[in-house]
# Entry
Amino acid sequence: MAGPIPTRPGVMRPGVMRTGLILGKFMPPHQGHLLCIEMAKRLVDRLTVLVCSLPDEPIPGERRFAWLRERFPDCEVRWLNEVVPSEPSQHPDFWSIWKATIRRFVPTGPDYIFASDDYGATLADLLGAQWVPVDRDRVLMPISGTAIRNAPLTHWEHLPEFVRPYYLRRVCIFGPESTGKTTLARQLAAHYRTQWVPEFARGWIDANPRDLAPDDFPFIAQGQIALEDALARQANRVLFCDTDPLTTTLWAMEFLGRIPDPVSQLAAERRYDLTLLLQVDVPWVADSQRFLPHARREFFQKCEQALQQAGRAYVTITGDWAERWQQACAAIDALLART
Ligand SMILES: NC(=O)c1ccc[n+]([C@@H]2O[C@H](COP(=O)([O-])OP(=O)(O)OC[C@H]3O[C@@H](n4cnc5c(N)ncnc54)[C@H](O)[C@@H]3O)[C@@H](O)[C@H]2O)c1
# Structure
């Protein structure tokens, strides 16, 4: 009687669970990595993604692990955070070290190793698996982690949405009321084909028509940050922020005569690559949420002092609209030209 039809290790059998492994530095994750993982996911029932990091690498391993865990909740994302040799030339027992290390994360299997580099073949042999090369010639996603780290803005289209905020240039528009902040933020966003972050406080105050309470200030600062971070994922290289938590500290001083602790802390933690400080040399335009028509010059001085105390890089924008536009674009072009 004929026995079962023999199958090669790489041939799939119906009803048999298939497992896969992909390892990487993912520094940072890019479209080439996503291609490998997305493809692998479709070919196996359970995929382990092993994020390998070493201390002192330019992007902390913890961040890379968090990125992939968020993006692939349906995979077994694990983090290898210990010093192991990176290349066979670095250690005579390189392959046995890697075999033992991988076995701690994947005790049995896997059936398939997914890798676009040839080491996938050796690793697969070692683990009794089959190597699935994904795109060895990098023709589908011609990108590498090194290229991104060297010039992230140049390779923006190869950055996944969840990595973009890490490299995004954030520009804060800062200054007294009625100096054209919102118009400038909106028009800059259109010009640079990106997003801008409106003032969270405006909508909040409109929806809560009463005197501001001390607790409103931390909430306003947190709401501003939440809106900014949500929009950061949609932005194209640069994000224009029409205010920030440091501004909230100034308004807290005006209204409360003190700065609630959470607001100071949020203001200190927040990072902007550039701040445009708008001068008060344009006419006042009244509206229901503007409070200091006669103290704009004093408020400007407080703004400048706050930026200096915070050690923030800023450029003062003055003059008529055309001059303001030209100065703002020059400062932003210089920022984007830096790698
Ligand atoms: N070099 C070796 O012989 C060897 C052997 C065993 C283990 N390791 C270790 O494995 C870990 C992962 O290293 P890595 O350099 O492969 O990580 P990586 O983050 O550069 O790449 C992860 C995976 O994505 C693939 N990939 C990268 N760019 C791609 C693109 N543009 N298109 C398609 N696929 C792409 C790679 O081939 C790899 O399979 C490191 O810790 C390394 O030390 C290396």
User: Anything to note?
Assistant: Confidence is low (pLDDT under 50) at residues 1-7. The pocket of nicotinamide-adenine-dinucleotide is lined by residues 23-26, 32-33, 35-36, 52, 86-88, 98, 115-117, 119, 123, 134-135, 138, 141, 143-145 (CB under 6 Å). The domain at 19-150 is CATH 3.40.50.620 (Rossmann fold).
